[in-house]
């Protein structure tokens, strides 16, 4: 019992009963609850019972007044109505404490108790309004409001109970006492802010029933328990476990009150049951635009596919116009597909497609991979009969494990990407065969590069399908899709004043707004439909107008209440009036314009039922739409600007906390959801200022994009990580990470042949690596620089870079990097025509590769050494290396290396004159090149197939194959194979003029920037063959001289034979039959036979047979 009870009993002349009250645990809060029967049990006489009841009645009135009109010393700028959570706390047994403890010790105990109260309350941003002896009165929601004030109060109450346990443990060391508390919490409306008193005692009054209700619940509570009322329970229900105490008659409260005892925080929340989407704002104007869309739809139904490019500024009504088309044709049979691009996923390859497929297939988070695959197959059955092939690609796109259900891929990431895009197009084409398809592709100004690539193909192929593709974007996006006859560009303009007025009238149900208000809306919205819609709704929800029978009228001048001057202020006014729902909108805005219920529920500090109510309010307010099913509910802000306003309303610290929490939730979800990509997590960690985690996930995102051949996205991801690294302290660890990011970024740039950009960023990385002695990284940097200069044709610089790569690889003592640097040097010397030197470097590279058993090194460089064996006329050695290269390539699933080794095997067979076998090998190599989408290598096989056809006299076939190869070279770049292809075109035609033109172009290319040696070797050899056929003997000599000049620094067997053969046959063609010439021809013939150069024998044999 508290000493307040003893003092009160003494004050009313009943002090003799204090011990009886203490024995029966009667605390101050229970005094007004005692009736006559209770007092009899306590031993009070009739007179004392009467005196007690009269005094208690006065106490009850005083307590009610005390609780109902509480005060706090907190300034406030005027009265306002708000929801407030009030907590009453009382210390049990304070009278006993006063009897057992020395006053000084009691003082310390009371101070410790009050400190515990203060700590628990302030920990949850509550405000201790008043200490009343052994009691405390606290408010949650004033002066600083929070969206979860009731939950905060309950947590504070539970914490305070726990604090008593800790406090008892401390006190028990010195005092034999136990502290207990009773806590009552109530939530309800109050009027707060009226100033009472004067000077230093001036306070803001709180008026209402809620404080009195909290005091009554405290009196009802058992020791060390927290009781709450229906208001607090509604707001905090899902976050705690409760004991239902039923309803109670509480003195001073008109109606019985339902009470709950809070047992503990809840372990989990229940699932949310989704609301239905609300309707759209009535369409105003746009008759011409709707008519145009309907016209294009009619053409689609007749089989003539159409594309409409719908552009306009944010909020102009692009999405509303698209919905208007859907509304107009709703009674028809068609298929609608919607793809939504997002500002958050501009570097997430095919994010809109993944989201659309996930929703269309109706995946549930609880679905197993097999169930998801079943659903996916069911979806795809609508568009194709080849389910396995299509499902395998789409399952990979959606990150669904197939576990042997479909055949494994045998293709490069580039080829898989190409096949996936083809499959997505095929799905739409298949659907359009059954019913017309209406495709909405929204906010393409935020599309990722791969999605834009898909869109380009969709636009190109749309005309052949019964499909209308409606693409929306903002003016800052430049459309690449104009110029087609089936593409229509449509730009939406702002509303006129009359259209704005019409829109306001439709929003108000035909009732006009006051002229002053209407004029402000017209002025501030500037004709943007979204601005008109949102500002009008804000006005209708304001308190300065009221609805009458025929019009809205002002209740007071709008100036004091300050009509919002911008759309952002208007939207924030609406969000503020939603109370706790505003925080839900803010959390959704932090997640993104579209957000899943699952993530929202985990991030939102409200129970499930409260979250359901909040989302219903947001939907009713027209701020968000509900999408999906009850198993996979998601939401979308009606407009991007609504989301922006909610997001911008958050304090920076709150944003950071939410981003951090959401990032963690998404991180936990990674791998379970196809739409959860590392770049989403990286973005949120970036916004949370958790740079370490953000950098890790930007790196992961870049690597994921690289694996999917989404090199442009990878570049952007690595770039974001680099930006954050710039904010790190300048430590060795930071510099190592920075160099790693720069290397990865340069690799992606190399993949898309942004070679100058790659060299620039490598130029930034090298000094840092050099300063810190990062030898391995320096080796990689110089190796990449060498590769870039190789493709740029800068052979001297290429050589220099590979030499530096080797030096640093050896300094780092990393064997595989040393091998690659040696191989790179071999490539550099090979490109320059130094075949013997290249061979020596390949020997060293392969020796290391075999020592460390690295099949990836052997796959690449055994093939290149096979080529150098070939040019040394060591055909058996060449064949052995090429076969070994192919086997190593298969071991590491390097289909590109396998393809290269295969077509080089064709060289050997071709040179031996084994044309039947060579054709089979070249056809296999060509098939591999096409399957793995290495288009620049297709001409290699095509050119040899063309020559073999020409040797067989099939000139038409030969010419077509050679022209096809040349066309691919022109498409992919003439540097790699252009001159070689032109020589084959000349070799494979019987038209002398065509041959001369091809040789002239090829010669011009070779005389330009220094190119790859195989162009010189094969061009000059084939040019000699062309001139021998057309009996241009001097030209043969010139081409032989050119080849000799090219190889003069380092001659090798193949070119020596080709040069000698050409010159001898040219001289023979001029009619020379001298013995010395014929002996040379005989020598060449015997050498060809010995080496196995069957391709070179026919002309030599012809010369020897005719004297």
Structure overview:
This protein is α/β, with parallel strands linked by helices. It has seven domains: 263 residues, Nucleotide cyclase, GGDEF domain (Alpha-Beta Plaits), CATH 3.30.70.1230; 205 residues, P-loop containing nucleotide triphosphate hydrolases (Rossmann fold, 3-Layer(aba) Sandwich); 81 residues, no CATH class; 85 residues, Tetratricopeptide repeat domain (Serine Threonine Protein Phosphatase 5, Tetratricopeptide repeat, Alpha Horseshoe); 81 residues, Alpha Horseshoe (Serine Threonine Protein Phosphatase 5, Tetratricopeptide repeat), CATH 1.25.40; 109 residues, Alpha Horseshoe (Serine Threonine Protein Phosphatase 5, Tetratricopeptide repeat), CATH 1.25.40; 73 residues, no CATH class. 60% of the residues lie in helices and 11% in strands. The strands form four sheets. Strands 1, 2, 3, 4, 5, 6, 7, 8 and 9 form a nine-stranded mixed beta sheet that branches. Strands 11-12-13-10-14 form a five-stranded parallel beta sheet, sandwiched between helices. A hairpin with a 4-residue loop joins strand 15 and strand 16.
Summarize the structure.
By secondary structure, the chain is α/β, with parallel strands linked by helices. Helix content is 60%, strand content 11%. It folds into seven domains: 3-265, Alpha-Beta Plaits; 287-491, P-loop containing nucleotide triphosphate hydrolases (Rossmann fold, 3-Layer(aba) Sandwich), CATH 3.40.50; 497-577, no CATH class; 729-813, Alpha Horseshoe (Serine Threonine Protein Phosphatase 5, Tetratricopeptide repeat); 816-896, Alpha Horseshoe (Serine Threonine Protein Phosphatase 5, Tetratricopeptide repeat); 916-929 and 936-1030, Serine Threonine Protein Phosphatase 5, Tetratricopeptide repeat; 1035-1107, no CATH class.
């Amino acid at each position: 019992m508290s000493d307040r009870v003893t003092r009160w009993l003494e004050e009313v002349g009943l002090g003799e009963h204090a011990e009886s009250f203490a024995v029966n645990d009667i605390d101050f809060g229970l005094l007004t609850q005692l009736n006559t029967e209770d007092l009899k049990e306590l031993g009070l006489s009739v007179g004392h019972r009467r005196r007690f009841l009269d005094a208690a009645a006065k106490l009850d009135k005083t307590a009610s007044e005390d609780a109902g009109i509480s005060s706090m010393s907190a300034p406030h700028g005027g009265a306002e109505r708000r929801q407030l959570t009030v907590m009453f706390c009382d210390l049990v047994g304070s009278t006993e404490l006063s009897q057992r403890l020395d006053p000084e010790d009691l003082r310390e105990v009371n101070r410790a108790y009050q400190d515990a109260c203060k700590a628990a309350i302030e920990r949850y941003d509550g405000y201790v309004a008043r200490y009343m002896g052994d009691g405390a009165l606290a408010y949650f929601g004033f002066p600083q409001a929070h969206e979860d004030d009731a939950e905060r109060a309950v947590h504070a109450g539970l914490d305070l109970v726990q604090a008593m346990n800790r406090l008892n443990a401390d006190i028990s060391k010195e005092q034999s006492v136990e502290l207990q508390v009773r806590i009552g919490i109530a939530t309800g409306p109050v009027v707060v802010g009226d100033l009472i008193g004067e000077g230093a005692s001036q306070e803001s009054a709180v008026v209402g029933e809620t404080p009195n209700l909290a005091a009554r619940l405290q009196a009802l509570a058992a020791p060390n328990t927290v009781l709450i009322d229906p208001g607090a329970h509604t707001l905090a229900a899902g976050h705690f476990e409760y004991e239902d105490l039923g309803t109670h008659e509480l003195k001073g409260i008109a109606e019985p009150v339902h009470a709950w005892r809070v047992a503990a925080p809840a372990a989990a929340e229940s699932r949310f049951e989704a609301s239905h989407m609300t309707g759209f704002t009535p369409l105003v104007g746009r008759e011409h635009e709707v008519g145009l869309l309907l016209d294009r739809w009619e053409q689609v139904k007749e089989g003539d596919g159409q594309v409409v490019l719908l552009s306009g500024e944010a909020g102009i009504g692009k999405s509303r116009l698209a919905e208007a088309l859907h509304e107009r044709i709703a009674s028809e049979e068609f298929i609608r597909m919607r793809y939504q691009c997002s500002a958050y996923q501009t570097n997430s390859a095919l994010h809109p497609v993944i989201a659309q497929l996930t929703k269309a297939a109706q995946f549930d988070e609880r679905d197993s991979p097999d169930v998801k695959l079943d659903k996916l197959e069911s979806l795809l059955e609508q568009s194709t009969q080849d389910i396995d092939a299509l499902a395998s690609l789409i399952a990979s796109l959606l990150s669904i494990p197939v576990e042997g259900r479909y055949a494994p891929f045998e293709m490069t990431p580039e080829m898989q990407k190409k096949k996936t895009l083809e499959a997505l197009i095929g799905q739409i084409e298949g659907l359009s065969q059954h019913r017309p398809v209406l495709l909405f592709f929204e906010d393409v100004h935020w599309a990722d590069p791969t999605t834009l690539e898909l869109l380009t193909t969709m636009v190109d192929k749309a005309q052949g399908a019964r499909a209308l593709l409606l693409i929306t974007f903002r003016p800052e996006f430049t459309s690449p899709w104009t110029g087609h006859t089936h593409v229509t560009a449509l730009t939406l303009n702002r509303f006129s004043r009359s259209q704005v007025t019409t829109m306001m009238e439709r929003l108000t149900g035909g009732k006009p707004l006051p002229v002053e208000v209407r004029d402000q809306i017209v002025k501030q919205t500037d004709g943007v439909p979204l601005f008109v819609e949102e500002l009008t709704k804000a006005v209708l929800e304001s308190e300065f107008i009221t609805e009458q029978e025929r019009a809205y009228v002002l209740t007071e001048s709008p100036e004091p209440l300050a009509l919002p001057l911008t759309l952002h202020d208007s939207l924030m006014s609406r969000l503020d009036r939603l109370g706790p729902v505003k925080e839900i909108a803010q959390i959704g805005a932090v997640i993104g314009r579209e957000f899943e219920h699952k993530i929202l529920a985990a991030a939102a500090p409200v129970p499930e039922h409260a979250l359901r109510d909040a989302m219903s309010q947001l939907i009713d307010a027209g701020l968000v739409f509900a999408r999906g099913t009850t198993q996979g509910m998601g939401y979308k802000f009606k407009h991007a600007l609504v989301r922006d306003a909610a997001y911008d309303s958050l304090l920076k610290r709150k944003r950071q906390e939410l981003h951090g929490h959401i990032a963690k939730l998404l991180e936990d979800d990674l791998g379970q959801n196809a739409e959860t990509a590392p770049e989403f997590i990286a973005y949120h960690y970036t916004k949370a200022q958790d740079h370490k985690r953000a950098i890790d996930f930007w790196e992961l995102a870049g690597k994921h994009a690289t694996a999917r051949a989404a090199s442009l996205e990878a570049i952007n991801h690595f770039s974001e990580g680099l930006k954050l690294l710039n904010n790190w302290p300048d430590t060795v660890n930071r510099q190592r990470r920075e160099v790693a990011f720069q290397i990865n970024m340069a690799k992606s740039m190399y993949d898309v042949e942004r070679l100058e950009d790659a060299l620039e960023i490598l130029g930034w990385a090298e000094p840092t690596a050099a300063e810190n002695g990062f030898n391995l990284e320096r080796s990689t940097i110089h190796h990449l620089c060498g590769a870039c200069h190789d493709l740029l044709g800068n052979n001297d610089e290429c050589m220099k870079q590979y030499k530096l790569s080797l030096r640093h690889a050896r300094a780092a003592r990393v064997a595989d990097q040393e091998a690659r640097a040696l191989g790179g040097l071999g490539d550099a010397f090979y490109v320059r025509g130094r075949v013997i030197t290249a061979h020596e470097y390949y020997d060293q590279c392969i020796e290391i590769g075999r020592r460390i058993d690295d099949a990836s090194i052997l796959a690449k460089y055994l093939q290149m050494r096979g080529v150098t064996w070939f040019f040394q006329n060591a055909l058996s050695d060449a064949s052995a290396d090429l076969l070994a290269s192919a086997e190593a390539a298969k071991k590491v699933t390097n289909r590109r290396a396998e393809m290269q080794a295969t077509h080089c095997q064709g060289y050997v067979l071709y040179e031996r004159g084994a044309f039947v076998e060579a054709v089979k090998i070249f056809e296999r190599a060509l098939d591999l090149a096409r399957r793995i989408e290495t288009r620049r290598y297709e001409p290699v096989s095509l050119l040899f197939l063309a020559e073999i056809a020409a040797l067989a006299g099939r000139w038409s076939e030969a010419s077509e194959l050679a022209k096809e190869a040349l066309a691919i070279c022109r498409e992919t770049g003439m540097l790699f194979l252009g001159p070689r292809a032109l020589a084959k075109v000349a070799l494979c035609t019987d038209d002398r003029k065509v041959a001369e033109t091809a040789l002239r172009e090829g010669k011009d290319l070779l005389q330009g920037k220094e190119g790859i040696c195989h162009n010189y070797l094969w061009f000059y050899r084939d040019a000699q063959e062309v001139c021998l056929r057309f009996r241009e003997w001097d030209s043969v000599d010139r081409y032989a001289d050119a080849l000799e000049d090219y190889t003069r620094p380092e001659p090798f067997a193949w070119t020596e034979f080709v040069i000698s053969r050409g010159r001898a046959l040219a001289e023979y063609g001029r009619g020379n039959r001298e013995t010395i010439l014929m002996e040379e021809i005989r020598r060449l013939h015997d050498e060809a036979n010995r080496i196995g150069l069957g391709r070179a024998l026919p002309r030599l044999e012809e010369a020897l047979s005719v004297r």
